[in-house]
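Fold this sequence, please.
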Amino acid sequence: MARLNLTTIRILALLAVFVVIVLFFSTQIDNYLNARLFNRISSSVAIILLISVGQAVVVLTRNIDLSVGSIVGFVAYFVGLGVGAYPDFPAVLVPVIAIALGACFGAFNGFLVSRFNLPSIIVTLATLALFRSLAVQLTDGSSVTTASLPGWVTEFARADAFVIGDFRVRWMVVISVVVALAVHLFLTRFRAGRQFYAIGSNPEAAKVAGINVRATVMQAFVISGALAGLAGFMYLSRFGNITVVAGLGLELKSVAAVVVGGVNIFGGSGSVIGVLIGASLIDLLETSLVRWALVSEFWRDAVLGMLILLAVVTDTFMSRRLVARPAEKTAAAVEAPAAPRAKAP
């Protein structure tokens, strides 16, 4: 019950912060509240949301995946090369290949972490550099250009699912939200999904309960890699021009969205709904800071770092308070003097 209350408090606090940021920048930036802002942020959030949802699944198991930015860049680059070389390849299979390629990278991470019990932060920090260096070596530093891509690739990023006035909801936004909701339902409504929470809460107890910890951690990294692969395809579609540094820095944004979204960095608790709001909040703040003349755009990474720190400190404080409250009540009940017995006549 305490966890449910904590999750609800996190989501409500995020929504309040979101509203405050919108109101603040609306007083600082001319013509801030308009459809163009929504269209720009929603398209950007569609990519980071997919990465962050996969990151959240990994973090729930007390791990972290720092290689997601390199996976996005690698997939975007090589899928771009592939569709450029074979423009008549069935379009519906391209994102499937991107997902499969990303899942292979995730499986590699998961194998090293689960099979050899290595720290995930070390493994994925190494593969972050490995995947990026592999892309550089295989491509010799060349670039994918929009002109080399079939028209449908870049048109997909601008394709509208529906339009309300000047507000355009792209198909890539709809797909990302549907994926996020599907993962949310899987984690909260299915026994296989609840195992990720169980491992993050207490790995030893999870083993005693019969959960295959190694296989579940492996699944978490495969999910993270697969969603990063899908994000790589969307990245290619949105930007078109892809270099070997594509996706650089997305790992920081995904961690920020996860932690700010209320997923406990030590695993075991959190909500994908919170991650959705957290990703939107991060992108809103970043976009607003770029347009705010009083602050240099070089402060964006610093703000992300401060948000991560603030979120971790707040989450730790709230968790300790909620755990301490029942303990205080129990201690008070134990220390309370027993009522005097009535004497027998």
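The radius of gyration is 23 Å. The first helix runs from residue 2 to 28.
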